[in-house]
Amino acid sequence: MSNRPISNTLRRLLVAQVPADFADWLDFVAIGALLVYVWSVDPFVFAILAVSMGLPYLIVGPIAGVVVDKSGIRQILIISNIGRAIATFALVLAPNWQILMLVIALRASVDTFFTPAKQSAIQALTAKEDRMRINGISYAINQASKIVAPALGGGLLIWFTPQNIFAMNALVSIVAAVLLWRLPVIARQEEKASEAISLWQNLRAGMDVVRETPILRSALFMMGAGYFAMFFYDTLIAPLTRDLGFSQTILGLSLAAVGAGGVIGALPLGTGRADNRPFVLVAIGSGLAALIIIFIGACEAADLPLRQTIFIVLFGVLGFCTAMTVVPYRTVIQSNVSSARIGRVTALSEALNTIALLTAPFVGAAIASAFSIGAAFICGGGVMLLVTLRAVQLRKLR
Fold first, then answer.
1. Percentages (nearest 5) of helix, strand, coil residues in the chain
2. According to the model, what pLDDT value does residue 106 have?
3. Cβ neighbours around 12 below 10 Å, total
4. pLDDT tens by residue, 3-36
5. Environment class of residue 302 by beta-carbon count within 10 Å: exposed (0-12), middle (13-18) or buried (19+)?
6. Distance between CA 80 and CA 109 in Å, rounded?
7. 328 near 337, Cβ under 8 Å?
8. Largest separation between any pair of C-alpha atoms in the chain
9. Sequence-distant (≥ 6) Cβ neighbours of residue 250 within 8 angstroms
10. Tens digit of pLDDT for each residue in 124-177?
11. Do residues 376 and 255 lie in contact, with contact meaning Cβ atoms separated by under 8 Å?
């Protein structure tokens, strides 16, 4: 068990992560309000919105990983937040939804640099036995921002226009950049690769690390499959809630419960050693999540009664289970990749997750249309069971 105190530099990084993650979600509701209530766009625009937010992680993300590995970590952390502030302020000036989508895609492109840099910083500033704990705190911050920031953004719409909230959110990113400016130079635990090679060779170097390291290959594949299972049913939660006879209030409480469960699940993960069989946690978390998802889907498919309180609690447990899988994956990556390659491998993992985001909802929607929404949940739970079986096979790995 690691009770080592957190260093001042690491504490500053985590404090700066609060406004940085907050800025990802503060204007989320404002974007929706602008599209629906001000511009009255067609529903297909929201599909374009999802692509604008996700596609840069697939296209720009791998290149961002190379840049992170070849540059100073502190500089990338600062510049990415300044760039996000500029792009967020540009939302104020967008005259129509087409330009808004372009700016959102630009902001997402800038944002692809932040996560690999943050993971590189955590790796550089922690010993192996401390990484589960620090990743747990980092994930808890991220999940808390998903609860508080949209709620605050929605509340601010009572008094301010969406454009006002965009401007406020730009200032939040500036605050994050100022806090990151206070960081000292972050030295990598190994020397950066100094070979002069092409961009494609740099990208291949990250993929080669994954291909040549079985535990990494398994971790990234399982993480991608887990996100695929989650996105399989995630966009169907609202119609599922309706079909079970629950109100919009129950939908909101259930989504909040997911975030709260993620916070609660992430914080205690640091009580064990980072190398103490992380796939055991993945097996438990994904297995329990699979059973819950299948149960909820079966209730809808078979028209079985389900109490509102149980529904909300189950979604809270799902959030808890998600933390039990995501945090160990991040720890495995940091503990099995050199500091000269960590940015590329992190960006690759983000790209795989984005592929799941851009494909799984359409597969889930097709199954829901052909059979029922509950059937899509059951299929998503089945995918999660496959992840569980693989985690059980790897349970002895560290």
1. 80, 0, 20
2. 96
3. 18
4. 667 788 999 999 999 999 999 888 887 888 888 8
5. exposed
6. 10
7. no
8. 63
9. 241, 308, 311, 312
10. 998 888 888 888 889 889 888 888 888 788 788 889 999 999 999 999 999 999
11. no
Residue (of 240, 222, 197, 229) closest to 341 by Cα position: 197
Taking only the tens place, the pLDDT of each residue in 365-380 is 888 888 888 898 999 9
Mean pLDDT of the chain: 85
CA angle, 327 as apex, 342 and 253 as ends, to 5°? 135
The CA distance from 46 to 7, in Å, is 43
Cα distance between residue 172 and residue 23, in whole Å? 6
Cα gap 378→299, rounded to integer Å: 10
Taking the whole predicted model, whether its pTM rises above 0.85 is answered as: no
How far is 172 from 118, CA to CA, in rounded Å? 18
> How confident is residue 206, by pLDDT bands cut at 50, 70 and 90?
low
Between CA 127 and CA 137 the distance in angstroms is: 15
Instruction: State the residue for tokens 């068990």.
Output: 1
Positive or negative torsion for Cα 291, 293, 297, 300? positive
Name the CA dihedral angle for 377, 379, 380, 383, rounded to a multiple of 10 degrees.
160
CA distances from 209 to 47, 60, 157, 230, 384 (A): 34, 20, 47, 27, 26
Cα 114 to Cα 322: distance, rounded to the nearest angstrom: 22
pLDDT-derived band at 194 (thresholds 50, 70, 90) equals very low
Q: Of the ranges 143-147, 207-211, 390-394, which one carries the lowest mean pLDDT score?
A: 207-211
Residue 40 is encoded by which pair of tokens? 């009255």
Helix (H) or strand (E) segment spanning residue 391: helix 373-393
Confidence of residue 274 (pLDDT cuts 50, 70, 90): very low
**Whole-angstrom distance, CA of residue 107 vs CA of residue 113:** 11
